[in-house]
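Notes from hallway chat w/ T.B., transcribed later so I don't forget. T.B. wanted the structure written out for a chain they're using in a teaching module, and asked if we could keep both sequence and structure tokens in one place. Agreed to drop them here.
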Amino acid sequence: MSPERAEVFTHRPRLRPDILLSPPLLRGPATVHLIRDPADGSSFEVGPKEYFLISRLDGERSLEEIGGEYASAFGRRLGEANWRQLLGLLGAKRLLAGAPPREVPAAPRTPPLSGNLYRGSLRLVADADATTGRLHRSLRPLLRPPLLVPLLVLCLAMETVLAAALGTLVRDTWWLFHQPVALLGVFTLLWLSTGGHELAHGIAARHHGGTVSEIGLRWRLPAAIMYCRVDDYRFLGRRRHQLAVGAAGAFANLLFLLPFAVWWAALAPGDPNRRVLSGLLLLGSVQALVNLLPLPPLDGYTMLSHVLGVSNYAPESGRYLRLRLRDRKAAAGYPRRARALYMAYGIGSSALVCLIAAAVLTAVFVLLAP
């Protein structure tokens, strides 16, 4: 081995400590990892072999040592040219420690308001990450399992009680829809609850190491809702943290309902205030629980994707099913796990949509029946 070549294999490169690496994600027939540079927001995909090498560039192990691990895992030892190509790519993207900082052009200042009267968005804060950071610091003492677990149990107990009184809640909600002033008050409270839902996503993301890029108001008349854009959730270290960020919104919705449920339980049946609260509790529960359905773009769909480690689950499932109809031989080229997951989602999501449609039609017929 020439001295120059030996020097290559004794090199101990180190990935920049701020570079983010995602867990394995199934995308179509392939397994990929995402690599993100938070300095400029750029990201790209690599395969399992490239990830194996990149994730081991810790400045401690030499290329010779990493190459030995690679040979044990994949049955092939990398040559000098392979290493030069990989390190050249990482160097060009400024991902290695010691590389000169990338000259990132200043992002153009976008106006906080975009769109038109019918459809648009409004950025509400200049620095969303700093805003959620301040909220997180204020609420951090409350974001601990000894407090969150009892609150979750209370929310589940509330939903159990409400489910037992479903008939009464439905009748009271139908009455509420004939009371314009009370109905406006209920929908105002539910709209405020959506704001808490979105902020909860941001606070949970900050609690587990993520970042928030934007908080704003988005409308498509007649609907207008707040939004909170969370970055880096794919790169959180543990899957349960990803799930916590996804579930935080629905949890916040249910927490919002808890004091109203106590008030509702304290009132006598037939009390007009109780009937208004029945509508609030039913509609608020539907708002929270529907968000947990595994259908895009709902939170439940994001959580299911996290649990299974799948990227673009619904589109890739549709792509696989269409391919299966056109060319079964090509579809058979998908890995077994991909075939099973995409087929299961295609069948399951279709059945779920049919069940929801049937439930809605049944409710309409029951309410409109003389």
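Follow-up for T.B.: The radius of gyration is 26 Å. Might be a good example for the class.
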